[in-house]
Amino acid sequence: MTPPTTARLTFREKFAYGLGDTASNFYFQAFNLFLAYYYTDIFGLPSAAVGTLLFVVPIAVAALNPVVGALSDRTNTRWGKFRPWILWGALPYGVLGCVMFANPDLGVHGKLIYAYLTYTAVLIAYVVINTPYGALMGVMSPSSEDRTSLSSYRFACAFLGALLIGWLVPGLKDFLTPAGGSPADGFRNTMVIFAVLSVGMFIYTFANTKERVVAPPQEKGSLGRDLTDLKSNGPWLVLFFVAFLNLTNTGMRNGAGIYYFKYVVGQESAIGTFNLVGFLCFIGGALATKLFTARWSRRSLMIWLTIINALGIMACYFVDPQNLPLLYALNIIASFAAGPTPAIVWSLYADTADYGEWKFGRRATGLIFSATVFVQKVGLAIGAATIGWLLGYLGFVANGVQTPSVLHGITLLFSLLPGLFALAAGVAIFFYPLDEPQVKEIERDLASRKGGTNPA
């Protein structure tokens, strides 16, 4: 067994790890921001059917997350437990994403079947590569400070990917539409570019990271025992509910954005700039994480930053849609406040893995991270599905003139409803029990048990 090390992670390794989430977000954000719109306004599927699709498929596939997490915990290769999955999954991930936007010439029922099959295949590839990728952060260093810094790099890079998707896709899909072609051709050509970039970035992540934290040598694999321990891991259970609430908010607001700008604001192209400004502020917030954590505890930051983000989102409901400067101002506040929260919360997940090993004598990093991803995907699915269901219920007609009730529903999906979920997440974090002195004590105890040097 390799003892814990006090060596700090290098910039190159942190950056290499972060690029893995840039690659992930090329698909994640494309789906989050534009998939409902693509299916209704370009692929030609009924909005209610799209809502069901976006609910059923992610939740069905999300059940694989704990399975892949448990399998990766039990993977043993010369490259480690989690890195090999990134290498194995990179090419299928890229190829399937292109197939998803191939736009075959089929009837409505054929298109719906095609959408179910390809969306399912892409999400399975995403699980295979992204679940071990998330768990990798928990074993690259035994230090909570190092993991928080690593998490900051991860989410700065993640939202670089989100920025590129949110900003470039609206224009690229038009630019890459050939003369005489359709918007579907532009979407397909755009996703080919991002697919190639994704594969290259994942391979770079695999080649330039290293696993350092290993499970106790006496530990024997038992999925039943791991699940029992997980249910008794109080800090993780709190974060479980926080993840659900936050990602429901994210899936709903982000997916509703292009509808809001196309039908309520009346300027579809403005969504690109709106996303660009928001993601730049989000990245700025993510890069400022270390400044925040130097002054306040991660728990306190999660509470208040999440609440500020929620209030910024909800306030958009009361703004005249034509008052773009005020919408931008609220987006800037909400996005900057949200920026540090992914890095902080994922470092807290790594802390709960330490807590589980400290309390139960067993480490199940892959299961903890994969179960977290599972509930996140459930939240995203509910948020995205609500868009299709509510629009279908209100009588939405793709590319047509919308009734006042539809326009009001789109506004609710963009503001009050996601804001309420975000506010509930901020309240839930009050119940997170671990403070910084406890985390340090756990780190010291684990280092002592393994016969290594205490983390700095």
TrEMBL record:
Q: Which residues cross the membrane?
A: 42-64, 85-102, 114-140, 152-170, 190-209, 230-249, 269-289, 301-320, 326-346, 367-392, 412-434
Extract the signal peptide range: none
- One biological-process term from Gene Ontology? carbohydrate transport
CDD domains, A to Z: MFS_MelB_like
- Fetch the InterPro entries from UniProt: MFS_2, MFS_trans_sf, Na/Gal_symport
Give any GO molecular function from the UniProt entry: symporter activity
Q: Which UniProt keywords apply?
A: Membrane, Transmembrane, Transmembrane helix
One GO cellular component this record assigns the protein to is: plasma membrane
Question: What PANTHER family would the database entry show?
Answer: MAJOR FACILITATOR SUPERFAMILY (MFS) PROFILE DOMAIN-CONTAINING PROTEIN, MAJOR FACILITATOR SUPERFAMILY DOMAIN-CONTAINING PROTEIN
What NCBIfam families does UniProt report for this protein, alphabetically?
gph
Protein family (similarity comment): Belongs to the sodium:galactoside symporter (TC 2.A.2) family.
Q: What is this protein called?
A: Inner membrane symporter YicJ
Q: What is the lineage of its organism?
A: Bacteria, Pseudomonadati, Verrucomicrobiota, Opitutia, Opitutales
The encoding gene is: yicJ_3
